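Need residues for this backbone.
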């Protein structure tokens, strides 16, 4: 039996999986890593700590799985940038994480200078600190790193590929490249014009390859030993779209993790920019890109963690569901978790978190319920923008991610959307997608049809109850949202 290993290098930790040919999970290893918040709005990771977490999880897997590993896939938190020295393979500074807001002012300046149309047309993205380019520009401008022939920039996938191959492969895949704000998604190469705008030499960027295909082979210094092909790479959200078998245009998934990311398969023609949404590359299986429309919501599950770690309202994330069910409704309380500004469809870096509607009778349960409802309201706002862009409403939304275990959330979501919400048995779709990309390239699987047949429904949630009442709640949510916008001057 062939074994495929998938490395899911997320925002809060690394999960590595060993899967067999039937997609069954043979072993899993997880290690969390440190979040650094050096200034308000700044978020950093130590690239060496992430690499050590990868090595740790791989060594645990190789202790448990005796069969030879046919291929490795990598999926990763996107947009986050690592700078390293090619001679020493040492990082030059901490990684700047996707949530980091330090380049907000620079993005506003570029907006005022009128660069948005060019950026949007070329990259499918927006001028927002979320993306990689202004982070790289910041490192160069502030002389944290120096332009020279040893300098390498890369997203987490490139960094891990470099370390796994001991410096022999310097590459990324097209789905990750399409999140940097430096990639021309129609012409399929780094954009010279945009690289010039940010003062980033193309020699400091990795080669861009299809998501499925050989990127390199492991060196003897890795915990799984030498000679294993690394044959699939995709950003975590695109990987989840693939792992959810959303292979036909119009098929849509939402991942409820730290944030939530709604992606709709848009087919092989690059769609026009859509109001409030991003156009991005979903994957390339070697025969040209498949595109996706994306709505990026920065904080959903992270608000549950804030109830736990920030307020101590709960002691485990799993308590939220029962607490939210301890009250019949939100009691008029609305929670806008704009901790890192607002992403799709509002794109407001100056928004901040708001809780409104509190009275003397407000209980912990109401707060928990408002946190759960906020996940559904934010998703509704994105899906409505998506339906408008696509000119048709979505048929069904497939869901995954840590918070998708909550039946309460998924029922509220179906009610708010008026659309079926479907949860598969395997919700580790992020890891599943990267494994599939790698296994397809190495002949473990021969065609994407095998991904379709691996998808099995756990539970479907259909809209129930009074649509008018749901719309009224959503109206109140929009009013709360307005109060949180443009808060920071
Ligand atoms: N039993 C649970 N009930 C409700 N929410 C949960 C539960 N377990 C985890 N969560 C939420 O799920 C989120 C984690 O989900 P997931 O592991 O998919 O996140 P992620 O964004 O992929 O993390 P990473 O960025 O590290 O990849 C947490 O924010 C947590 O609040
Ligand atoms: Mg993840």
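Answer:
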């Amino acid at each position: 039996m062939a074994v495929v290993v998938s490395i899911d290098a997320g925002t809060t930790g690394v999960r590595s999986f060993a899967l067999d040919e039937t997609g069954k999970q043979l072993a899993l290893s997880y290690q969390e890593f440190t979040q650094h918040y050096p200034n308000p709005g700044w978020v950093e990771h130590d690239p060496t700590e992430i690499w050590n977490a990868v090595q740790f999880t791989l060594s645990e897997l190789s202790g448990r799985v005796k069969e030879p590993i046919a291929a490795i896939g990598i999926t990763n938190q996107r947009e986050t940038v690592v700078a390293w020295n090619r001679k020493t393979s040492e990082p030059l500074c901490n990684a700047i994480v996707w949530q980091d807001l330090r380049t907000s002012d620079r993005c506003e300046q570029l907006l005022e200078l009128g660069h948005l149309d060019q950026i949007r047309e070329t990259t499918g993205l927006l001028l927002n600190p979320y993306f990689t380019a202004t982070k790289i520009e910041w490192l160069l401008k502030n002389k944290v790193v120096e332009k020279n022939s040893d300098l390498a920039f890369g997203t987490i996938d490139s960094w891990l590929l470099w370390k796994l191959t001991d410096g022999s492969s310097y590459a990324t895949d097209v789905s990750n490249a399409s999140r940097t704000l430096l990639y021309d998604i129609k012409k399929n190469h780094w954009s010279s014009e945009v690289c010039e705008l940010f003062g980033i030499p193309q020699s400091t960027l990795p080669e861009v390859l299809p998501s499925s295909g050989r990127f390199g082979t492991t060196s003897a210094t890795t915990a799984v030993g030498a000679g294993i092909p690394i044959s699939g790479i995709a950003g975590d959200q695109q990987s989840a779209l693939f792992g959810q078998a959303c292979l036909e245009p119009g098929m849509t998934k939402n991942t409820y993790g730290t944030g939530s990311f709604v992606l709709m398969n848009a087919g092989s023609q690059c769609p026009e920019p859509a109001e409030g949404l991003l156009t991005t590359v979903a994957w390339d299986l070697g025969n040209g890109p498949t595109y996706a429309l994306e709505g990026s919501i920065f904080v959903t599950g992270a608000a549950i963690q804030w109830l736990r770690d920030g307020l101590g309202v709960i002691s485990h994330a799993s308590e939220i569901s029962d607490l939210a069910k301890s009250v019949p409704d939100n009691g008029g309380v609305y929670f806008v978790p704009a901790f890192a500004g607002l992403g799709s469809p509002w794109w407001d870096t100056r928004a901040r978190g708001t809780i409104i509607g509190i009275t003397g009778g407000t209980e912990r349960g109401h707060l928990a319920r408002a946190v759960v409802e906020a996940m559904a309201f934010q998703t509704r706002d994105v899906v409505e923008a998506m339906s408008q862009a696509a000119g048709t409403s979505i048929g069904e939304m497939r869901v995954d991610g840590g918070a998708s275990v909550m039946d309460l959330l998924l029922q509220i979501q179906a009610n708010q959307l008026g659309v079926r919400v479907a949860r598969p048995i395997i919700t580790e779709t992020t890891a599943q997608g990267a494994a599939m990309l790698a296994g397809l390239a190495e002949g473990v699987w021969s065609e994407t049809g095998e991904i379709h047949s691996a998808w099995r429904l756990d539970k479907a949630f259909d809209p129930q109850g009074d649509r008018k009442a749901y719309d009224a709640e959503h109206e109140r949510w929009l009013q709360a949202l307005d109060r949180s916008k443009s808060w920071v001057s």
